[in-house]
Amino acid sequence: MAAHVGASRTPQEVMEHYVSMYIHGNLGKACIPDTIPNRVTDHTCPGGGPLSPSLTTPLPPLDISAAEQQQLGYMPLRDDYEIEYDQDAETLISGLSVNYDDDDVEIELKRAHVDMYVRKLKERQRRKNIARDYNLVPAFLGKDKKEKEKAPKRKVTKEEKELRLKLRPLYQFMSCKEFDDLFENMHKEKMLRAKIRELQRYRRNGITKMEESAEYEAARHKRERRKENKSLAGSKRGKEDGKDGEFAAIENLPGFELLSDREKVLCSSLNLSPARYLTVKTIIIKDHLQKRQGIPSKSRLPSYLDKVLKKRILTFLTESGWISRDAS
């Protein structure tokens, strides 16, 4: 209108003249009634009714590339996916129609279908909100790793990771910030408890100032290091003495070098020479193989092998996998 009038009037001046003359002036009062009859009714119930658009308020679209949108099947203008949660939810109301001859039961049944559909829509939107809040889409696309590298946080312990896994069902009831704050507060509580125990230990040892604690800690570390060195030296010495004395009775006998470490321990505990053990072992394994092939065989065990020794050797060979359990 301003362009039609010419350069003498600005758009703002033209608008003010139109409103004052044609809407609020005598012409507007004569033409525009105070109450407008037959106004169109909004059946979508924007105030929160059964099919209100406000039930599923769309979130701002995800900031992802076109290739990533195609990978996810994401439609940014609608904030929808090609495959939604409960994909067939619309079938509950797609065939509904209101007829003038519907009785009360049919009307209540159709209302129940609408209520079921609304519940499914709310659940679908709730899952979208959780995925958006916890950044599940960037995590799926691998973008969260780059963000974590840019913003370093405190190191998460193994116990905290296990606790997060156990409490994962609570994600749907808490926002991401509330969940992070929960674990941050738990970490602070743990640190404070450790600090309280440390200060109580200082007080039990007669330390009342923090300046004295540094000297106490240095002396304590020296004592602990001295104890560790003594215990390591004693354990090494005990192992060496044990190795020297454990096989002293059989290490010079023939066949000792053919035994494994476990067989050496067995022979030493049974007070059996390596040659005799190898003989018994060969006979038992040979008899076992003949039985598996269906060849009848008589046990030709030496006379010096009593029942106790035989049982111990059979058990050892079975546990080591030389013979099967049914043979023993």
Automatic annotation (TrEMBL):
SANT domain span: 1-26
Highest taxon listed in the record's lineage: Eukaryota
Signal peptide limits: none
Stored Pfam families: TADA2A-like_3rd, Tri-helical_Ada2b_C
GO biological process: chromatin remodeling; regulation of transcription by RNA polymerase II
InterPro entries noted in UniProt: Ada2b_C, Homeodomain-like_sf, SANT_dom, TADA2A_B-like_dom, WH-like_DNA-bd_sf
One Gene Ontology molecular-function label: chromatin binding
Protein's UniProt name: Transcriptional adapter 2-beta
Any GO CC annotation of this UniProt entry: SAGA-type complex
Region (Disordered), start-end ranges: 213-243
